[in-house]
Design a protein that fits this description.
14% strand, 5 helices, alpha/beta, Rossmann fold, 156 residues
Amino acid sequence: MLEIYVDGDACPVKGEVEQVAGRHQLPVIIVSNGGLRPSRNPLVRHVTVPESPDAADDWIAEHAGEGDIVITADIPLASRALKAKARVLKPNGEPFTEAGIGTALGMRELSRHLRELTPGGQTHHAGFTKQDRSRFLNALENEIQATKRSFRSGSA
């Protein structure tokens, strides 16, 4: 059964996930270290994990699998979810893919190294835009439709 897992602590599109999942009557599991307001939507379940750096990632990686969709900006989690055959989207709508995850992990490591060399360790991150939100809505809809098609054809 298709489930949508959300890496919830810093996810800017939780409302959009709930909106699209509601149209399709799909369960959503939002995993966080706490501090999120629970949804009244019966399709949405909140899972609170201990406050450790990778607890939410570990929980999602242990539960998401083939035919599921994971929403995260975390590259190592995306890699783990892809290995489990889940589909993975960034909050801006860009997909993580098997073909691109190695490059993404390498760029993450390069960025970490550059931050270490930068005084104060600060880097600039582009803001989240309306276009990102719109792209995410379209991408999530497309991933749901593609997953449903693969279920029907028996390849999920």
